[in-house]
Design a protein that fits this description.
250 residues, alpha+beta, Aminopeptidase, Glutaredoxin, 4-stranded mixed β-sheet, 7 helices
Length: 250
């Protein structure tokens, strides 16, 4: 497998794996704009040269869009190998590249947000445990902060208090989101329009800075749905899923 490191110099020419389309597509445009700003913070986006979902994205934890305390670590934003790419050792290749870069830069280790059980949009906890990751901390309702320390004396990272017990003072449905995930640019407006059609109280909150992300009210900042102040899901909602959620929550 040949891999490509996406940089500011080739960003416009390369596909971004999870949303494969042209640069005029709102999902692609939003993600690439987000990436272009993160490169200056040391973000690495490594992907297969072939078109498909096979990539890893990581950044020094001090600049991670995640409410964690993990100074000196490298943080994995997203790690996705799926479809025909599975079962060929590509996950090992990508993770090894992350580990190698983190070690070369003198990091304490690697961190990543996962879950107790396999959950959509989060890295597979079983695979990460197999690769030596351990649970550093947890946050409601199901999030875990995993870490791979490079030595036994490495400090243990943790979630910030704001993410431990997700809550917001806003009523109705509220979606906090970033453009770190390209799908949000498409599906947040869909949810917003659907809520308007149904007369449902709804608000979307774009997290548009590192500071806001590091003080977000949930562990997973790319997409977080709340209802009447309580955390509901990290799953991105289309109309059908949103309708089912509205019915379930009354």
């Amino acid at each position: 497998m040949e891999y490509v490191k996406v940089t500011k110099d080739n960003l416009e020419q390369e596909h971004i794996c999870c949303a494969i389309s042209n640069n005029k597509d709102v999902q692609v445009a939003s993600k690439k704009a987000w990436l272009s700003e993160r490169f200056k913070d040391g973000l690495t986006f490594l992907k297969s040269a072939e078109r498909g979902k096979c990539f890893i994205e990581y950044i020094p934890a001090e600049y991670a869009w995640c409410p964690i305390e993990a100074d000196g670590y490298m943080h994995i934003d997203c790690f996705w190998v799926s479809g025909s790419f599975k079962g060929h050792g590509y996950s090992n290749d990508l993770l090894s590249a992350c580990i190698e870069e983190a070690k070369s830069k003198g990091k304490h280790g690697i961190t990543v947000v996962s879950s107790a059980k396999k959950t959509s949009f989060l890295s597979d906890p079983k695979y990460l445990a197999y690769k030596g990751f351990k649970v550093a901390d947890s946050a409601e309702p199901f999030f875990t902060l995993l870490y791979l320390p490079f030595d036994e004396n490495a400090p243990v990272p943790k979630f910030k208090d704001c993410a431990k017990h997700p809550h917001t003072d806003k009523g109705g449905f509220v979606i906090y989101y970033t453009h770190g995930c390209p799908f949000t640019a498409k599906y947040v407006p869909i949810a917003e329009n659907f809520a308007k059609q149904k007369g449902v109280l709804f608000e979307s909150v774009l997290i548009d800075s590192t500071e806001k992300a590091q003080n977000a009210p949930a562990a997973w900042t790319n997409y977080a749905v709340f209802y009447n102040g309580n955390y509901v899901t990290n799953e991105i909602l289309n109309e059908r899923k949103f309708a089912e959620l509205i019915e379930r929550l009354g």
